[in-house]
Structures are given as structure tokens and as C-alpha cells.
Amino acid sequence: MKQQHILLTDCQDSKGLVSSISTELYNREVNILSNREFVDPVTGHFFMRTAFEGSTDNSNLLAVLKNLLPENANVRLATKRKKRIVVLATKEPHCLGDLLIRTQYNDLNATIEAVIANRAALGPLVEKFKVPFHLVSHQNKDRVEHAMEISDIIDSYAPDYIVLAKYMRILPQEFVNKFNNKIINIHHSFLPAFIGASPYKQAYERGVKIIGATAHFVTGDLDMGPIIEQDVISTNHRMTSKLMAKAGMDVEKIVLARAVSKVVDDRVFVSGNKTVIFD
Amino acid sequence: MKQQHILLTDCQDSKGLVSSISTELYNREVNILSNREFVDPVTGHFFMRTAFEGSTDNSNLLAVLKNLLPENANVRLATKRKKRIVVLATKEPHCLGDLLIRTQYNDLNATIEAVIANRAALGPLVEKFKVPFHLVSHQNKDRVEHAMEISDIIDSYAPDYIVLAKYMRILPQEFVNKFNNKIINIHHSFLPAFIGASPYKQAYERGVKIIGATAHFVTGDLDMGPIIEQDVISTNHRMTSKLMAKAGMDVEKIVLARAVSKVVDDRVFVSGNKTVIFD
Amino acid sequence: MKQQHILLTDCQDSKGLVSSISTELYNREVNILSNREFVDPVTGHFFMRTAFEGSTDNSNLLAVLKNLLPENANVRLATKRKKRIVVLATKEPHCLGDLLIRTQYNDLNATIEAVIANRAALGPLVEKFKVPFHLVSHQNKDRVEHAMEISDIIDSYAPDYIVLAKYMRILPQEFVNKFNNKIINIHHSFLPAFIGASPYKQAYERGVKIIGATAHFVTGDLDMGPIIEQDVISTNHRMTSKLMAKAGMDVEKIVLARAVSKVVDDRVFVSGNKTVIFD
Amino acid sequence: MKQQHILLTDCQDSKGLVSSISTELYNREVNILSNREFVDPVTGHFFMRTAFEGSTDNSNLLAVLKNLLPENANVRLATKRKKRIVVLATKEPHCLGDLLIRTQYNDLNATIEAVIANRAALGPLVEKFKVPFHLVSHQNKDRVEHAMEISDIIDSYAPDYIVLAKYMRILPQEFVNKFNNKIINIHHSFLPAFIGASPYKQAYERGVKIIGATAHFVTGDLDMGPIIEQDVISTNHRMTSKLMAKAGMDVEKIVLARAVSKVVDDRVFVSGNKTVIFD
Asked: C179-209 pLDDT, tens per residue?
């Protein structure tokens, strides 16, 4: 199989962008596998994802495209490969276990380089899969100190993305800024409903008939970052908040895995506080 | 066909309630069609819905049951019949049109006695179905005055329920109190997300991947009453708030119709700010 | 607002198609609103839908594109306008009523020119909406004779599409051939499960936990034409086939309306026995 | 916590069944936690599931109830406990891995006593979880011989249920008869669509817009046993059968886990070729 590349372009829309980009790729005789574009009708911003096979002078391609495109265009060329992930977790095994099995059995285009947890409970699960496990207790540390300790460990693995698999601590602004658009979180509610702590308890108390989960990039505003994926399941009056939490685990792990899959396959643009996803 | 009755009981749970109620009905030799019960494990409240066929002395049944059951038990015996509905609307035809067709073609166990609107636009639609249409403009009236004018018209039809089919005005406390647990509203979001005005605009701005609709009883707190029914559909980055609103109309009308159907079939208990539904 | 056009191209894939088409449109200085393409990785067939605004010499555009594209390319230029529909029905009002309200209130980019039914029951509903209603009884006629009588009436309205809104008769091959890829049917099951008569009875007997509806183009093979849209709802042991049929009506009408909407918006390619849909 | 018991009754319906059963339990002063019943309106068969806490003379209870109930009534008293499961698999890890994590982390009221596979691939996964793994190759054996070899191993674990977690061999009638209503299979389609081999290939070729998975009890008729659980996800023209298979894995594992959960919680009655489920 030939090496695949993903060209990701976004810029202010103007006439002829698709023509310019596709003509440039055509002239280089690469084999275009798929081509998706979108112009936001409200902001007038243009997004394009082109997957192609075959070799070209990649740094030259980027330079030429930069020249063809409007000022301030973002052009990025990703080579299709397994992305490196570090997972942060606390004590719940369902999301983490699901990611471990998926990565180990090629159901996700990624490898888990390490798992970092603020509690010890998940160590044995992680070790089954021969993945390094780091316990970084938050006890007797302030929030920033704790996060920076984690940050140092993360840096030692040089991951492409950080996945919060039910990591139950709020990350400080410094940490979030450092890994801008690189941290994917799963929140156990259908955001923006039930922001913050105990969303199933909130859902139970409100008496909703549907519960959900939301995977999003982490920003400085709690549970307010760009949403990547959401899904829901039915609930009813027989479900206590504990039963909702149990039923919700399935949605959480599937939503998180779908979000990570889209991100590691270079299908997700972040645009302001939203995502544009070519799936 | 024999007349069907629905016995609705709720009270503080205690041992032997199912035994007492079912034995009493057994002794009266009525034919039990279905029997559903639920004890809320958090509040310890007992709910039971029994549908039966056959004649008994209904007022005596209620008296005997009251005597068997704990103090403050609610016991209600509903005879299966078409419920009388008054619909309030503003200018959108999709929910109203759907209800008109359903009631006229026996897909809902109800009749629409009248439609009251604060704008004229829906008059021609309502008149096609030979249903009285009342235009009660809100212009140059204060909120309470306007609502009381509507209330008087409603009273003249003595409805069982009032259905807000995209009625876009907030009803004052006096009105809501008068028709306690009798007013069913459709809100065009997946509550409690996007309370209040322009939920599709809010959804668009938040960049959610799923939108929904919620049917609920109206209380004094805006969009906070007991939820009867919710459903959702997928959305994506290509949908503007206008396209979301268009796609959402289908969910709104289906969710509202399902909620009304459950209420008019005497399947819904209101319990605090929640519903217990035997569907 | 400027006139919108939809350019629909499909042909055997070859390098440079997107470049050729988009460059040609760029040179004509039209304003491209959206551009979607797809290359089937199995068949190697290329599909492209381009919506643009602004005037160009349309017949010249088609000629030039034909010249640029591989032999046997299909190129079609549709002008955005309300499509003309003739509806065939039998006796169930839910799909027909839904289409009548949608078309009358601009929720579907189409007009219903006439309704033809083999029974009289729906006449009063249709007449409410001032749409011509033709009763063409099938009694004492053979299948072909009956269909050709309907065909003549259809011809008199010169519709773009024929929508079968729970029309419960099988159409003969001659009829289907005449209106190739122009007839949209709603089947009340999740095809290919429960082909043919009484799908809800079949679903009940099989004990499925989900039921559905399927909108598809009609071909000579019963319920086997290209699928446009499907959706499902949950069912359970409490639902008889009659209750399934009642619950299923909502899915049927929504699925049919969505399918018609996509077709009349020129979003649907038929490719062999499948559809490629840019929604 | 007191021991919980589940009383499962089914018999021909007659008047007074709920009264008899609930009065008998009331007199024994046990604490009823939940009570669900259903009378099939078509077959006139009665089903009841009662969960209660507290001690009674269980064998006496069964004898007394047998006496109270119509002839041929089935009465079963299950004590709430972890059920013993043997899993059969072939080479796909997603369902098996999901069950291993769930059982090990108490998300399923069961233990996996052993995994038996006809290929070696899953051995390392199973061994991570310290569960016995038996490779029973089917090569050079006839179907019955192979199945009986598996059957002997199963017997040595005396399981409550056998779960086929993508076990890709058809089991012979002798095997199925021996474990009547004890074998739960996951089929990777929305049955009864796409029975038999390669359902995703069939789905791809039919061009469906939704794919699904079905968990069912295994009977002698391939993919025709009583359905326990089904769910679906959307698909589209971009998905090859391989991509459908990948996307389908998530539905398969969730549907299988939900089905197993309901069975091991004694919520499922088998009635003819259907299930009655109190969830």
C-alpha cells in the first residue's frame, strides 16, 4: 500500500479555492482518494480535507498552496499513521478498558503510550495490556502543581493527543493552554445540559427522558469546549441516578471512542468553539 | 365492546398495596386488561395503573379503596373516552396541523374543541378542519389581561387539557395555577439545554451534534415543568440555526403528539417535578 | 435572491475531475454555494453535486463539461424550483396529510398537483387543501388496465415525481418502467426485513424489538428498489401488530417526507440499486 | 443487604392471578421491591416478575403457588447472584473484550468461567484476565464431533448461560437442544434482515441506510431464535462493507452486553419464539 496523506486547509472563502487546490494536486499526479469541503454560510470560512496517495514534495506542496490561498490560510499535511495518545483517568474502567482493547486490536488508529491516573485503582487493568501506568496522586498538592507533574510525564511521551477517560479533576488553565486542541474529554451528559459535577444526579432530579454523553476538546471554560461527538439513550422513571450512571457508561465509551477515532484520522477541524467534521 | 376504565392510584408505599387493590378488583369480577405499578426507590411512593373492563359501582370502588389505602392516597377512576382539548398556537403550522389530522382521523384519543391563537396566520388551516378558531391578539394588552381573555374562551369549552402547539408567549402564573397539570407544552430543545428563547440559535452557537424537543407540563417556572416526552435528531456543521429549526419541526410534532397521546390515555402520573409513565 | 442551480455529475472516476469541473465553474464567475463529491471505492464511479448562484450560459456549460468529462458521463443542471408531485394513496391519511401540510406551508420544496386514490376515503382530506382528487377504483379492472388509467391522469399533470403515500397496490412493470427513478414509495418496514404484505404482522410474529420504515425508488422488483431513507423506533412485547402499525405511522410519514425532500432538492443520485445522497 | 429473590411466574391467564400471588407474598411478610406483569392480549398468557427481599420458605412458597395457579403454570424462584457464563468465540476481540472488562469490573451480574474458541487468536486477550482459555479447533472434525467436544468442556464448568461472542460456526441441533434457552448469540445484522453469512456484505449490496445487531437465544433454526435485544446505527453511501463491519462492532458489543445483562438479571421470559422482558 502506498503512503496516504491528508491535506487540511481552512481559510476565508474566496472564489476558485477548490479549483486551485484540486488543480495543484492534479498536476502533481497524486491519486486523490477523497475530497470534502465546506463553506460556513454564516462566517464565510472555507474548510477542505483531501486524502491522497502517492508521493510529492510535501514541503513544496505546502509552500505552493500557501501562495495560492488567501492570507492567513491554515494548511496542514498529515501523514496517515497511528497517533500517539496519553490517557488520563481516575477510577472508572469502562472508557479506559474500551480504549485499551481498541488500540491493542487495531480498531483505533492510535497507540496508548501511557496512562496517568490520580488514583491507583486502574493500575492492574492497564498493566494487563503492558502499557505504562503512572499514579500521580492529587493529595496534598494544589491543582496547578498536580497538573504540572502530569504535564511533565505527558511531555516524556510526546503524544499527539491527550484523552481524558473519565478523569475527574478539573485541569488548570496553564495545562489547557499548553495542549490547546489536543485534549479530548468525555462528559457524562448531553451538553450543554448538566455541566459540571454529578450530571446523572442532575438528570435524575430534572426527570429527563433521555440521557447522553458528549466528547469535546477541553478549553479553559469547564465543559464548554468544541463538541466532537454526542449520543443519547432513553431513560425512564424506574432509573435512579445510579442506574442512569450504569446505563450511561455504554454511551460514554462509544462516544469517546468515536471522537478519538475522528480526531486521530484527521477528520476534525476546530473552528471557534465548534468543530467541522468530515466523517 | 365493554366500557373500559382506568384506575390510577398513588400513595406512600406500604406492604400489601398490590394485594389489596388487585383483590378488591378481583372480588368485583371485572376483567383486568393491564396492571402496571412502580415504587419509587428514592421517595418510597407507590404508583399503580390498572385498566379494566366491566361494570362495577365506581363510586363505591373509590370509597372502598380509599379506606384500604394509606392516608392521603390519590385514587382516580377514569372512563376511557375521547378527551377534550383546546390548542393554543401562534403562527407555526406543523404541530397544529399534525394534531388536527390525528384527531380528525382517530390517531389520538382526543378531539380539538377549539384553537386559540395570538396571530391570525393559522386561521385558514384550522378552518379547513371545521374547528373553531379564536384570534386573541396580545397587542396593547398586558400579559395577564391577555391570558385571562384566553382563559375565558378556554372555560367556555371545558377542556380536559390545553395543548401549546408552539404557542410563543409566556403564560402568567395565574393562568398556570388555574390549569395545574392540564397544560402540555412543546419546547424546541432537549431540555434542560437551551431554556427560553431561540433554542435553535443557542444550539447552533454551542455547536451541538444533536438537537431535540421536549414535551412537558407547564408550571410557573419557564421550561421547568415535569417532562413527559423527549426525542432527538442528529445535526452537523452544515446546519445553520434555520436548517436546525426546519429539521427540528419533525421532532417537535412527533414528541408533542406522543406526549398528548400518553396524557389522554391516562398513562401519566405527575410526581413532584417528574412524571411516572406507564406506556 | 439570485437563481440557484444544481449541477449533478456522475461518471467513471479519473484524475482531475474535481479540478476540471471546479475550474470551469470558476472561470464562469458563478458563486459556488456548496460542493460535494464522492468516489465509490468499489465501483470507481465519481459523483459530484455543486450548488451555485449566478447566471451562465447553461446549455454551453453542459456542452463544455460533456467534453471535459469521460465518455458516458451524466451531467445534469437543475434549476432550484418547486417540484411538481402527484401523490398516489389508498385509505390511510397520515402520510398524505403530512405531505399536504408540508407542501402548503413551504416545508417541502414541492407542490402536490393532484392525489389519485383507488378508494374514496381520502377525498375529503384532499379537498380541504384545494388539491384535485381522482378516484380510480381498481375494482373489475386488471392490474395493468388500472395502472394505465392512473398513468394517463398522471401524464395530464406532467409531474417531476410520483409519491406513493401508502398506496397499497402493486404497480405493473409497464408503469414502473415509464416512470423510472421517478416513483418514491414508503414501505412500512425496515427493508429488507418484512418485504411484501403486512410487515407489522410479520414483525409482531418475529418478535423484533425495533420496527422501521423505508422510503425507496420503485423498480420492477417488489420492495427492492434503491433505498433513499430509513428510520426505526423501539417496540416491545406489549405491542400487538395493531399497536406497532399505529406507532409506525409516525416513522412512515417522517421517513417519506425526508426522502421526498432530498429528491426534490436534487440531492439524490441513483447508482445501480443504491443511492448516493449529499444531504 | 438482605438476599434478593426473583419470582418468575407464567401461565394461562385467569382472573385473580395478581391478587393470589401478591397476597401470598404479602402474608409471608417479605418486602416486595418491584412487581411487573403482562398479559399477552393475543395468546392470553400471563407473565409476572416479582423481586423481593427477605426470607421465606422458598420451596414451600413454590408449592403453595403451584397450587394457587392454573395447571401447567411455570413458577421459578431465582436467588439474585452472579450467573456463571462460558463464552464461545472465534477471532474477533470486541465482544469478548467488552464482556471480560464488564465481568471483571462488576458491570454485569456474571462471571466468565471459561472461553472456548475454535481459533487461537483470542488466547492472549483471555489470559490477560486470568480466565481459562480452551482452543478447540474445528479442523478435521465434523460439526457434531466438534460441538460435542465443546459441550464436554462446557459441562465441566456447569454454567448458567453460554454466550456466543462472534462465534462463527453453526451449532448442531444436538448442541442447541442440550442447552435450550441457555445460549445467547449476537448476530451482526438487524434480524430478520441479512440472515446467515456476511450480513455487512449483504447490507452494503442492498444499500441500506441503517445497520444493526441482534442478540437472540439460539434455536435449531439459524438466526431465528427469540430476539432479546436489537439496536441500529446510521450508515451511508461512503461506507464499504468493511467500514460497516467496523462501525457495527460497537453496536454488536453493546447489544450483546445488554442482552446478557437482562438474562442474568432474570428479566427475560421466553414465550414461543419471542421474549417478554421486564427491564
From this structure: 999 999 999 999 999 998 899 999 999 999 9
Domain boundaries, chain D: 4-79, 83-277
Q: Is the pLDDT of residue B115 over 70?
A: yes
How many B×C Cβ pairs under 8 Å? 37
Could you tell me if B209 lies within 8 Å of chain A, comparing CB atoms?
A: yes
Q: Which of C223, C250, C265, C266 is catalytic?
A: C223
pLDDT grade for D14, boundaries at 50, 70 and 90? very high
pLDDT at C1 over 80: no
The answer to whether the CB atoms of A257 and D250 lie below 8 A apart is yes
C and D: number of Cβ contacts within 8 A: 77
Claim: this prediction has a pTM higher than 0.95:
yes
Q: What is the ipTM of this complex?
A: 0.95
Using the Cβ of B92 and the Cβ atoms of chain D, whether some distance falls under 8 Å is answered with no
Strands in A227-234's sheet, in edge-to-edge order, are: A133-135, A110-117, A83-89, A161-164, A183-187, A210-217, A227-234
Equal fold, D4-79 vs D83-277: no
CATH of C4-79 among 2.60.200.30, 3.90.230.10, 3.20.20.140, 3.30.70.260: 3.30.70.260
Interface test mutation site (partner C, options D38, D210, D241, max chain C beta carbons within 10 A) = D210
pLDDT digits (tens, 9 = 90+) for D111-141: 999 999 999 999 999 999 999 999 999 999 9
* Mean per-residue pLDDT over chain C, rounded: 95
Q: Does D246 touch chain A (CB under 8 A)?
A: yes
D13 counts as catalytic = no
Does domain B83-277 fall into CATH 3.40.50.450? no
